[in-house]
Amino acid sequence: MSHRPTLLLLFLCLISGFAFSQTKNQLTDEEKKYLLNFVYPISSVDPEKQGNDDLEILNGLVGNSKVVALGEVTHGSSEIYQLKDRMYRYLAQNKGYDIFSLEAAMPEAYNINQYVINGEGDPKALLKGMYFWIWQTEEMLSIVNWMKEFNSQNQNKIQFLGFDMQFYQGAFANLKKDFSKYQFPESDVNELSALLIEIHTKTREKKSGHTLVSKKQKEKIDVLLNNTKRLAEKIPAGIDRKWFLQNIRIIEQYLAKSYSTRDKLMAENVMWIAENYPNSKIVVSAHNGHINNRKNEMGSFLKDGLKNDYTTFGFAFYEGTYTALSNTLKKESLRTPQIAQTAVPGTVEYLLNSLDIPILILDLKRLKSEANPLAKWIVNDITKFRNTGAVVLKREFWDANVSNDFDYLVFIKKSTNSKLLD
Q: Which of 2, 69, 102, 256 lies at a 20 to 30 A Cα distance from 32?
C-alpha cells in the first residue's frame, strides 16, 4: 500500500497551518500595548486647524531629509489630501520645505508655480490644465491657494513643481516660447511639432500604454533635439537654461514612456529638482505605489540616489468613500462616490483600527529596528494592505510588507470622496 496519499495530506495540512499562522486577524492586549509605543495620534486632518502641537513629532521623524514623500492609497480620498495639506504647511513653516512637488506633468505644474509666486493665471484653470481629474479638486486648490497666500506674506518663497512626464505638450510649448524669446530659427521646432503630433495621434488612437514611435521617427527627432540642445549655449547660464534643457528632456522621456519606465523617469525628474535647487528641501506628493521602496518603483530609485535623505510616509484608511472612475471609465462616474471595501481581519488597516485612534502616524522605522516578536505581524509578515488608484478595482487589498515599503504609515479611520472642481 502506498503512503503517498497520507504524506500528501500531511503536507497540505502543514502548508495550511503555515498560511493560517501568517494571517494576523486580531491583536492581543500585549501586542496593542507594545504597538502604542510607536503611535503618534493626530488630532485632525483639517489644514485650517489652529495649533499644531500634534504635528511637532514630524520634526524628529523627517529630520533634515532632503526629500519627504507623502503617499496616498487612492487618488480620491479627501481626508488624505487634507492631511497632506496640513502636513506640508507645517513642514514649510517649521522645517524649511520650500518645494511642494506633485505627481503631475512637470511643465504644466510649473505654470501653477507662476501663480503661487507671481499671481499669474487662474488656479482652477491651471489645475484643469494638468490633464487628470485627480488634481482638479477642492483639496488641491486649497494647497495651491495657501501657497499663494504664504508667498504674499513672506520674503522666502515656496514653489509648486511637478515631476511626471506622460505628456509632451507643455514642454514643447515652453520650447516654442524660448525660440521666440531668443529669436532662434524655427524650422527645426516646426518639424519637431509635426512629428510629435503624428506620434501622439497614433498612440492615442491605439490607446497604448507606451508611446508609439517608429525607428525612423525616433532618428529624426534625435537629430532635431540635439540641434535644439546646442542652442542652450546661447541662453544665459542659470535656471532658464536649465529649464530649457529639461523641457527637451521631458520630450525625450515622453517618447520613452511605458508602464515599466515611468517610475524611473519620474525619479530622474525629482532628482533634477533636488540637484538644481540645492538649497531647497522638497515634499513629494504621489501614490503609495510610486513612493515606496519596492524594486523599480520611483521610491527605490530615489532611495538609491538620496539614501537617508529620502523619507517616506505611506497613507491608509479603514473605511468610507473615495472618488474614482468606475469600470466604464466614463468621466460622469466621478460624480458618484465610490464605496471603499471596509478593511477585514487580517489587513493592516483592520488591525490598526483596533487601537481606537481615528488618526495616527505609526513609526515603522523604529518599530523595525527593535525587531520585537510582538510586532512580527507588521515587521516580518506579509499582510493584506489596500492599494487602489484612479479607477475602481474589484480587489482593493493586496499582499504587502509595509515596514519595508515605508518609514512611517499614516492611518485614517474614515475616508470621504475628494470634491471635484466645478
A: 69
